[in-house]
Structure formats: structure tokens, C-alpha cells
Amino acid sequence: MHHVSRSDLKKNGLRQTRCPDQFHFDLLSVATMKLLVTIAIVLSSWSQTLRCRAFTTPTIARQQQANSSPSPSLLFVETSSSTTSASSTGDEEDENTVVCISNPKTGQNVTLIGTAHLSEKSNQQVQRLIETLQPNAVMIEIDPSRLERLGFDSADDIKVARVVDSEDITLPVAPPKTDNGLIGIFQKAFIGVFSQVARAFLTNMYKSLENDMDQKAGGEFLQAVQSAECCDVCDTVILGDRNSVKTIQRVAELAIESGDFIGVLNRLQAVNEEEMSKLEPKVREELLKQKGQEGNDDYEIDETEFTTAMMETLKEDEQFRTRLFSKLEQDVPEFTRAFLKERDYLMSESILRELDRRPEEVKNIVGVVGLAHVPGMEKHFKTIFADEPAPLVQEVAAMTLE
How many domains does the structure of the chain reveal? Predict the structure, then answer.
């Protein structure tokens, strides 16, 4: 996987432009756009392996137990294995990617299925678990504007009783630090243009990846909708995510508020390049070994095959994911807040709202999200079910007091 450097920009004849108040960024920077795509792919592949602390029964068995006789005092949050009838491959995948959270007061359950957005295995896992769990509602990491990517003209084309979204959920944010004068007006205009251009590049490059890999990005979300339509007890699909343009806008807003817009982008690229440079040789070495070409540095590996191998490795390598996102949180908090924490909040709240709306009818909701969102959403449900403020609410309150 090629990382674009500053020398690559010069080769492509691109230049930086200077904007007022020291903010300068080339909106057509190939380096930045490729970086955004790389991070988007990695985001879909990050998870933590959560181990059982209070229970050891498989997810589906736990769900059945919770529905029949919920515990009045225990909250369990753990990564699951699957039922004994499932294949060992399914068991191993569930072990790393599925989290079940139960509200001890209501007996309601939330199961989060962490996926990789360009993985056929994730599609199959989503189908298998929804068919087995039979949820009352399914939440997917999609907003209404992205339904067309799944093949739907509108929400009306989804064959369930109700389709809802998270667009009216209020997001907790700290008071903005941007200038309200002429510079502030320019900054808002810059953010708008930047987000639209970035979104266009992301969309086009995702399409290119789809063509190269012969695999549609977000196929697990289409599978989740189709499985929900076929589930007799599921009457609701929740489009829980935020519009991607708004997410990119938030990254730009937070970067500007930091006072070092270019520094944020440079730190983001530096973390990505540092960590990916450690992973890529391992993936190449493993592919060469599989082909009987171990040690042959001149052997050319098909780019599509290499990209697919990178995706699966990212999904399986917990140590790499944990290290990467820990470093991103430390070095580029603006990125993790916009791309992860705020979206974790909105998707979690969209599920909680459905649980609260019909507590006697809705006992089981499945959320299908990129693996990067599973740890944050798990923490959100755990704190809310324990009658504590959501993690993002606590973080914003602390920032406001500073």
C-alpha cells in the first residue's frame, strides 16, 4: 500500500495555498485524500477483544437466559462466542467481534456486531447472527444520505414497519472557540468546501477499492437490512450514523479550534504512516510464505490480493489496532472525537431511544457497526445502564470546566 509523501505532491504538480489567519491547505491534495481513505478503512477494522468477567455462556444462550429470567443485579458486557452448532470459524470471529450488553433493570439486550466494511466474512456473520438472535430492531452505521449506496432510493424502500434515524439527537459539544468576525466567516466557508471535496474523494476512492476487490463497501449493512426484512419479530431499522459530510466538517472545526490545522493533519498522517509501515511488511511476508516465495523480495504480489490481506489482518490483529488507536487518541484527539466518540454517542443513543420507546415490546436490538465503534458504544451502554452520564457527556463537561 503506497503512502503519498510531500515529494509525491511535487511530482503531481500540486501546491499548497495560503489562507488568512495562517490556515493553508491544498484542497486537492492526493496525500490527504489517500490518508482519509486509509484511516476510514482502518476505522472499520479496529476492535478490542473483551473477555467475559461475569458469565461464560455463549452470546445466544445468554440472550435466551436474559429474556426468560433477567438477573436483577448483574450487568454483563463481554465478547461472545457463538452457539455450539456454529462452525469453529464462526466461533472465533464472534469471539473477536461481538459484544452483548444487558440492562439488568429491564432485561433488554443490545448485541453489537463489529464488522470490516470490505469483508465478505463480516456479511456472512451479520446474516447468521441476526437470523439466530431474532432482534426486534436492527441499527446500522448508515445515515439516510448513504442509503443509495446500498441500493435503496429512500427509506421507504426498506420493507419493515418503521425506519428511523439519529438526525434529531442532540450531540453534546463544548462551546466553540472559533472567531465570530471576518476570519470566522472565512473559516466556516473553508470548512464547507473542504468537507465536500474530501467527501467526493473518499467516495470515488472507495468505489475504486470496491472495483479492485470485487466487494461492495458496506455490504454488511445491506445484509443487515435484508435480514431485518426477513425477521418476523423485527419491525424497525435504525439509521444510526451521522452524515459523513458533517463528520468531516467536525474534524476540520476541531482542527481549526486547536489553533494548528496543518499540525493536526500532519500528526494524523505521521501516526498512520508510522503504524502502517510496521504492518505492511508482515502482510507481504505472510503472502510470500503462502505462495512458496519466502525471502523473494522481487516477487510481485497482486495489489487486490494485498489489499484484501491487509483488511483481514487489520481485523484479526488486536495488538496493532489497539496500538494505532491509542496513539491516535494521544496524538490526534480531534480526529478520534469527530470520527469515533461523537458517532459512538449518536448510534448508541439511537438504540437507547428505541429501547425506551417500547420497553415491554423491544427486548433485543442488534447494532451492526465498524469494529472501531464497538469499544466506545459498549462503554456508553454500560454507563447508561448503570445510571451514569454517557462518556462523551462526561468528557464535554470536563472540557467546559477547563
Answer: 1
